[in-house]
Design goal:
Structural class: mainly alpha
CATH topology: Serine Threonine Protein Phosphatase 5, Tetratricopeptide repeat
Strand content: under 5%
Number of strands: 0
Shape: flat
Number of domains: 1
Largest sheet: none
CATH class: Mainly Alpha
Distance between the termini: 58 Å
Order of helices and strands: HHHHH
Amino acid sequence: MSGKTTPGKSGQCSGRDLVGLAQDLVNSAWETADPINRTILARKALRISADCADAYVLLAEAATTLPEALEFYRQGVEAGRVPLAKSPSKTMSVISGESWKPDLICEHERD
């Protein structure tokens, strides 16, 4: 086993549980000042779930070449599509603003 997963194909546990575990690692990575540790945590997150889009963002930000960064961002977009495809009604309610209410409204939007 290479330790690499493909978006949409996450381990044996429930995909949601795995993405949550992976996201916890990514959240820790965001708080880590050391870029090497940040990258290590992002890669560990992807070994848990390839559907963790934020891990790809971290790797893209650490990339040393533009093609490498673009590939990580492409993989992140693909990983982000997986959960959206699994719950289209929830996604549409968020997109339409039913679930999301901004705390601040610009002056021109209050009329």
